[in-house]
Specification:
about 220 residues, 8 helices, alpha/beta, 5-stranded parallel beta sheet, globular, binds BIS(adenosine)-5'-pentaphosphate, single chain, 8 strands, 3-stranded antiparallel beta sheet
Length: about 220
């Protein structure tokens, strides 16, 4: 299965994608994680992307698309994938269609995680991420067992550079400028499903899994 998770910053795309990937035994492809890894390793891509990311803007399409194309070319995507953070605009959506059609595959569903601004700001301002394995925590909602230490791998937790108030505001503006045309694009293709993401993470996951199961069961559609 090839699934896209769409939604505002902080809606829980990363949190849900990781769980869904585990449950469906599919790779989780997060363009944000790949870009952050490149920034950490100070690659040429990372150096080019860093400023855009720190300001809350989008990294230019050609850079992100090239990166995604090579990730989708790895053998683990043959069984399917969960895509998180791409596409961000119509141009990326069309490019994705053409990349996938060259490989004779298509997107099975696009799950839109809908979340309110108040929830988003609370989530992003308390988010903690593991430096080693990218596991996600939250200071209040999902605190680690040991302060600033990852429950999964013992790595150090940190706050993302773009989780500052000013940058969060910019990320939301960028998101809102692009989202309605992107949602229309997938609605017109008949592949869009919507989930309210304001509830508890486990409840949101259950709802996503039910929707995905429904895709394989015509009586549930
Ligand atoms: P990216 O990393 O994709 O950031 P984003 O889209 O802004 O989304 P986030 O990662 O902030 O949020 P999320 O929805 O994954 O929420 P999470 O699960 O972490 O991109 C970062 C930057 O890279 C972009 O700004 C851009 O510059 C660049 N970029 C990336 N892709 C690009 C592209 N395609 N084109 C151009 N540029 C691109 O959850 C947030 C917090 O809430 C966590 O602390 C979590 O524990 C908590 N939480 C989650 N769910 C729940 C819940 N249900 N209840 C309570 N707490 C919850």
């Amino acid at each position: 299965m090839n699934i896209i998770l769409l939604g505002p910053p902080g809606a829980g795309k990363g949190t849900q994608s990781k769980q869904l990937a585990k449950s469906l035994n599919l790779p989780h492809i997060s363009t944000g994680d790949i870009l952050r890894e490149n920034v950490k390793l100070d690659t040429e891509l990372g150096r080019k992307a860093k400023d855009y990311m720190n300001k809350g803007g989008l990294v230019p399409d050609e850079l992100v698309t090239k990166m995604l194309n090579s990730r989708l070319g790895l053998p683990d995507t043959k069984k399917g994938f969960i895509l998180d953070g791409y596409p961000r605009n119509i141009s990326q959506a069309k490019t994705l269609d053409s990349i996938l059609s060259q490989r004779n595959i298509k997107i099975d569903t696009v799950i839109y995680l809908d979340s309110s601004d108040g929830v988003i700001i609370q989530r992003l301002s308390g988010r903690l991420v593991c430096r080693s394995c990218n596991m996600l925590f939250h200071k209040i909602n999902m605190p680690p067992k040991k302060t600033m230490v990852c429950d999964a791998c013992g790595g150090q937790l940190y706050q993302r550079d773009d989780d500052k108030e000013e940058t969060i505001k910019n990320r939301l503006i960028v998101y809102k400028n692009e989202v309605s045309s992107l949602l229309d694009y997938y609605k017109n293709k008949g592949s869009l499903l919507k989930v309210s993401a304001d509830g508890q993470a486990n409840d949101v996951l259950k709802e996503i899994i039910e929707l995905v199961k429904g895709l394989n069961d015509p009586s549930k559609v």
